[in-house]
Amino acid sequence: MIRFKCDYSEGAHPKVLETLLQTNTEQTVGYGMDQYCIKAAGIIKEKIQRQDAEVHFLVGGTQTNLTVTSAALRPHQGVIAAYSGHISTHETGAIEATGHKVIELPSSDGKLTAWQVEETVKAHYSDENHEHTVQPKMVYISNPTEIGTIYSKKELTKLSSVCKENGLILYLDGARLGYGLCAEDNDLDLPTIAQLCDAFYIGGTKIGALFGEALVVCNAELKKDLRYIIKQKGGMLAKGRLLGLQFISLMENDLYFQMASHANKMAMLIKEAFIKKGYSFLISSTTNQQFPILPNDVLDRMKVNFEYSYWQKVDENKSAVRFCTSWATSTEAVKKLIEEIEKW
Amino acid sequence: MIRFKCDYSEGAHPKVLETLLQTNTEQTVGYGMDQYCIKAAGIIKEKIQRQDAEVHFLVGGTQTNLTVTSAALRPHQGVIAAYSGHISTHETGAIEATGHKVIELPSSDGKLTAWQVEETVKAHYSDENHEHTVQPKMVYISNPTEIGTIYSKKELTKLSSVCKENGLILYLDGARLGYGLCAEDNDLDLPTIAQLCDAFYIGGTKIGALFGEALVVCNAELKKDLRYIIKQKGGMLAKGRLLGLQFISLMENDLYFQMASHANKMAMLIKEAFIKKGYSFLISSTTNQQFPILPNDVLDRMKVNFEYSYWQKVDENKSAVRFCTSWATSTEAVKKLIEEIEKW
Amino acid sequence: MIRFKCDYSEGAHPKVLETLLQTNTEQTVGYGMDQYCIKAAGIIKEKIQRQDAEVHFLVGGTQTNLTVTSAALRPHQGVIAAYSGHISTHETGAIEATGHKVIELPSSDGKLTAWQVEETVKAHYSDENHEHTVQPKMVYISNPTEIGTIYSKKELTKLSSVCKENGLILYLDGARLGYGLCAEDNDLDLPTIAQLCDAFYIGGTKIGALFGEALVVCNAELKKDLRYIIKQKGGMLAKGRLLGLQFISLMENDLYFQMASHANKMAMLIKEAFIKKGYSFLISSTTNQQFPILPNDVLDRMKVNFEYSYWQKVDENKSAVRFCTSWATSTEAVKKLIEEIEKW
Amino acid sequence: MIRFKCDYSEGAHPKVLETLLQTNTEQTVGYGMDQYCIKAAGIIKEKIQRQDAEVHFLVGGTQTNLTVTSAALRPHQGVIAAYSGHISTHETGAIEATGHKVIELPSSDGKLTAWQVEETVKAHYSDENHEHTVQPKMVYISNPTEIGTIYSKKELTKLSSVCKENGLILYLDGARLGYGLCAEDNDLDLPTIAQLCDAFYIGGTKIGALFGEALVVCNAELKKDLRYIIKQKGGMLAKGRLLGLQFISLMENDLYFQMASHANKMAMLIKEAFIKKGYSFLISSTTNQQFPILPNDVLDRMKVNFEYSYWQKVDENKSAVRFCTSWATSTEAVKKLIEEIEKW
């Protein structure tokens, strides 16, 4: 059985593990105040070209999203997100559990537009009784999105402008940020993101770490007392150095981006194979997630040797499924998959 | 200026005030444990034909909705509601502030269908990772809805069946219940509602009381410790008798329904006048809220002497507005409005 | 049976009811935006000599306390209160339900001292891992306290200074404020309180209103978006004018203070009678609540004709109980009670 | 510098790391549904002799505590804990942030007694207005406690009985459980704990794992939908196998208990050295945390080469400090510390 089900099927890239092994018996202070976390934060601040940013390391994405939201919003404020956004659909109401509404907007490509955000804010304030509705205060986007699409520099710039004009916080969920930044049609980079967003995170879990997300806070107001809230939400790792160490490994020699590029390359090979056979896609993705629409009988046959994620029913005979690659996806595995595709 | 803006522009029906005056110097225990609350609860239990029900009196609707939801749900559970539902749009995220997601479903007539609810539950459990999404556990409906429509007995029966089959709690927001039960095309009554719903409230604020909603809990599981939660949410009135007394007045001689019938009658006169002049409506309503679609210039002229609620833009030249009647709407006021309509 | 059980046994002072009656059929806008609320707010701002203050009217005390706290604090912050404070013990965890810890300090007289607050803040910041503990951000006091004692001007000034020096919000629960300000040994007044506190409320429910508390917000930072949070917590009364109207009545001709003075006078008569007979008190109170320590057999006999609140066991043979007076306490009732006391 | 500051200064026991390395490239499903988690749960269920128990693996202690509490309590319920309990003082109000009050009781030895719990419950229900106070529903204890003391079998049995009689959930925080079970004066074991407690966790972070706590749920009612709540609170690790794998390593050949015994042995050597020199202790501990009371000048000298935790001021000249050992504490390090002690 060859798995293309998700990008967190294996452990960590060997270099990451190596670093943990080498430092295992060293004694450090806890809770992310150690030298490794400080060093990792320094590397990231350099890469994003913002020495004024604050970097915190958390274990997982849901935890990071709920911590930032809880820290950023007052009780009557909500966060705008695409209906397909991770916080809208796949975090068991984690945001609502901190007391805040996710204001869900429709989106066919997983992205929010500046126009949508602007209209939502306008609609709120034009309501005579706007105090009876949740005040939009934050915008949540993911890049790449949950369906593999990416924001262009132009799109993100517009979104950022609208947010600034309307006093909204722009937060980017970068669970798969590497895959996005290494996509062939990408024109964003870390410094630009750090310029345009109030906060974002660089995802480690899905790109080569055992676990770990580097939360970058650029907006000064959001920095205040963030460590208190990380602790309160259960997100402060006792042996915090494990996070710092992993991010040092990921960032050194751009291992993070090398892994992402590899995964994207593998994904493009798969994409091509599907295209060649005339299959269409739920959405056109240039990152490590591909969503071909396949006949159900083809899916049944494929199931025998390959694991993929079921995504959604398209019609009686066809379904969209997800194939996911990662740093650990081998050319052999992809070759076998392509052979299988070509067989049909 | 004659106001048709809402159904809570005036104080209370004179009979309600009279009762408060008569009993003003009596000494009673506080917090709704007095003889008047007990008596009012008794009258209601008789009217709904369920001696096993529990009746609590709260001051307002948002308070009632958030208290019931908070009491009924575990942290990972959410409440299904129409996108236009009061809890979805007009309570400043009160439900989310208690930690729960409102799972919003589209609806063109303000109502939820049994089918929609069933599909939502199915979709949840068919997700391989359903633990990553909010568990649907409660269904919130309002009758009449926020746009004046009502549920038929058949519709509510189906909805109730689907809820029972799927272990969902069915909760009916009856802020305007009287108007619904007195509509010409209504076939529901209090005993049927008490049979089909796990909990519901009989709204006083919008039908002749100074304030007050009678929360009826039929499902035994929901009764447990409810008074604790009412207190915690700030909904336990010190001089609770004020609520009991008002509901005694409302229920005696069916004053509640007399007032609702009057308001509906006034609304039907207004409706007719608009129809006669060829205007269409956002939705066909047989209750005290009417939503005609009117040319903007007509609205401008009308504004001079009449107050209504702006509802939504329909196109460049037309908007939907709301005209609302109540127990206090006089035939004279309606006559003047009709004259105005006929003028255009 | 003559009741001295609490100060909310009756309805409202006749003048309050009269105002409601006179205005009953007037049409006003809802949610506290009407002329009466504006007028009442104006009167209060004049009385406290702060035109910059914001006044909101809420139905009850628990609701007011939880709304202010929720609006004022970020998630990791807590509110310091006496262990005997209302929010600590008698609001079913309403503050915690909004996500915040009540940091409870011991107090034998129901009051907090400036020193206690200062030590608590110091202890927090001197902890190397202070981010692992709740950050003190607000101080809750009640005046009079839950056991009838009052703050002197000197005490409140000191407390206020410590709060300002440490960036803490000082919030005063004035559920019985009138009784405090009319106590014979009181040296505080409304302008001083408005100068020293960031927010406080003038309690109506326990001093002559049907219900209602006037929340005064002096600190500019606390004003922001407060109406949203009042709505979210279920505290925005649809017919908000009922609150405005009542406070106009209470404030006109200082009815509020006349009622409080009367209640205090009645309480002093009762106090004297107990003293004459040689009974001691749980605490010395100069306000409308008196806490004599009485032999259990005396209490048993008294129970036949008089209602009081059981407070706490003192030893095997004696208990502290509470006698409460109000605007509605008649000289006759007090006379009868004194005769009973003198009998033993 | 030799560190005795805490029991999480190093990484993990080499055997733990070895397992991670060996399995690194294997593909497994995520979120704790993999074979390793299932195997680890099986081993634990065997060790506790309860096949009906449910085992969940979480990353950290605060997360585990807040998840269990949130899952177990209804909104109006609170958890009883010692004032010195971890949830009372060192989790930044994590419990309150889920909406629940920690009902803090005094304790000089860090433990709760059955009597205290019983009195608290009695006091609640004997209050005429008990609905105005938080309902005690859960009891939180830690074993060993935050100051190193342990519960005897008799104490825990009594506590468990009182909880059962009063419908309370007994939850044991076992962040350092191994150290407790390996203490020379301990008479508890895992099966007994699993019999007496409704839920508890076996702490990995502080005893040899990189991170990880094994939450054991014995009470059937608490099991329901727990995974939803783990996900919601951000506690569901994507590569969940990392937790399963570590606990397999810890449990195989009782490595967990070997490590704990070693740490305790080291702690006893340190304890003895302090006793020999005539120093007293804050509390008598037989586990890996020792709290000697030392003259401030001695502490100053010691600081040069040894790291310890400052605990509390005892008087002007003396302070209590904490020395902590772990699996990684070497005999050499302890020898050096003892030499230092003997020097004074």
From TrEMBL, chains A, B, C, D:
Q: Which residues form the Aromatic amino acid beta-eliminating lyase/threonine aldolase domain?
A: 51-289
Q: Which Pfam families match?
A: Beta_elim_lyase (PF01212)
Q: Name one GO biological process term.
A: amino acid metabolic process
| Keyword line | Lyase, Pyridoxal phosphate
**What cofactors are annotated for this protein?**
pyridoxal 5'-phosphate
MF GO annotations: lyase activity
Name the SUPFAM superfamilies on file.
PLP-dependent transferases
* Cross-referenced InterPro entries: ArAA_b-elim_lyase/Thr_aldolase, PyrdxlP-dep_Trfase, PyrdxlP-dep_Trfase_major, PyrdxlP-dep_Trfase_small
Q: Which PANTHER family match?
A: L-THREONINE ALDOLASE-RELATED, LOW SPECIFICITY L-THREONINE ALDOLASE
User: What family is it from?
Assistant: Belongs to the threonine aldolase family.
**Protein name, as recorded:** Aromatic amino acid beta-eliminating lyase/threonine aldolase
The species this protein was found in? Ruminiclostridium papyrosolvens DSM 2782
